[in-house]
Design goal:
This protein is α+β, with helices and mostly antiparallel strands and 119 residues long. The chain has one domain. The protein contains 3 helices and 4 strands; from the N terminus they run ββαββαα. Strand 1 (9-12) and strand 2 form a beta hairpin. The N and C termini lie far apart (38 Å).
């Protein structure tokens, strides 16, 4: 059991993993997997369980299929995404520090900027 919500871990495909992100889209997995593997982590990706739906009352109109989502984890159970980003521990392929905006895919390139406490 996790100490707090920011450091979750569980078994994925029979391997104990630190959870990086739950309910990630396929595009997000394509972004995260090479980034984490480039930083030396072994990444495990599994399909997220489907959400429990209320019983259908009208059987004539089928409910739309929920989008396929995935759970992304790393085998290093000490990994914490929050600490890795704000501790400036992750690097891009070009060697730049991963910033929060880059992690959230708001920027396509990570710009090394001084942390707020060094300005």
């Amino acid at each position: 059991m996790a100490i707090n919500k920011n450091h979750e871990f569980e078994e994925l495909n029979g391997i104990k993993c630190a959870i990086v992100e739950k309910n990630a889209t396929k595009e997000r997995v394509v972004f995260l997997k090479p980034l984490l593997e480039g930083n030396g982590y072994t990444v495990v990706v599994t399909a997220s369980p489907l959400p429990k739906a209320a019983p259908a009352t009208n059987t004539e109109t089928p409910a739309p299929e929920p989008p396929a989502t995935f759970t992304v984890g790393v085998t290093d159970v000490t990994f914490n995404p929050t600490n890795a980003i704000f501790g400036r521990l992750l690097r891009t392929r070009t060697g730049h520090t991963v910033t929060l905006a880059y992690w959230q895919q708001k920027e396509t390139e990570s710009h090394d900027e001084l942390p707020y406490y060094m300005r």
